[in-house]
Amino acid sequence: MSDTTLATPTGAGSGAPEFFVTPGYGANLLAGLRYSQAVRIGDRVETSGQGGWDPEWAPGGGPAFPEALEEEIVRAFDNVALTLAEAGATWRDVVAVNSYHVPSAADTIGEEHNRVMVEQFRLRMGDRAPIWTQTGVPVLGAPGMRVEIRVTAVVGHDG
């Protein structure tokens, strides 16, 4: 078990939940807000929402998000990759994505959000096209945060 893996219950079998904490921001969020970054049950991995924050960011700390929206989205994808890796998965294992966006226009999430999300899907997942639900929201969990991405992955299956 790595330093970033939280113990499973005593007597747990291979189907028991195993929780993971991403080094840096994940440990800070566990300490400050009491949640893990991922859970693995068998070959299925679920992540909590990952923002485009600095890898060492802590709640209540200084500026966490880049000024450029594109950089924030790319960093959120990077943070998903870090979190998946802790649980033994990659973007190539992802089958479902939920993304939450603070819209850049009154009537749409915005072209830049969509463009960067799709570019990152193609870069990180190749030909795999996961199911994707994209939701516009008025605010996210931290000041200045404009995007949050959570995923479901199934490890070890080609698709």
Which of globular, elongated, flat, extended, rod-shaped describes the shape? globular
Largest sheet: 8 strands, mixed
Helices, by number, come to 3
Classified in CATH, the superfamily is: RutC-like
- What fraction, in percent, of the residue positions are helical? 25-40%
pLDDT averaged over residues: 88
Describe this structure in words.
By secondary structure, this protein is an alpha+beta fold. The protein has a single domain (about 5-155), classed as RutC-like (60s Ribosomal Protein L30, Chain: A), CATH 3.30.1330. It is about 25% helix and about 25% strand. The protein contains three helices and eight strands. It has helices at about 25-35, 70-85, 110-125, and strands at about 5, 20, 40, 45, 50, 95-100, 130-135, 145-155. Helix 2 (about 70-85) runs parallel beside helix 3 (about 110-125). It starts with a strand and ends in a 5-residue tail after the last strand.
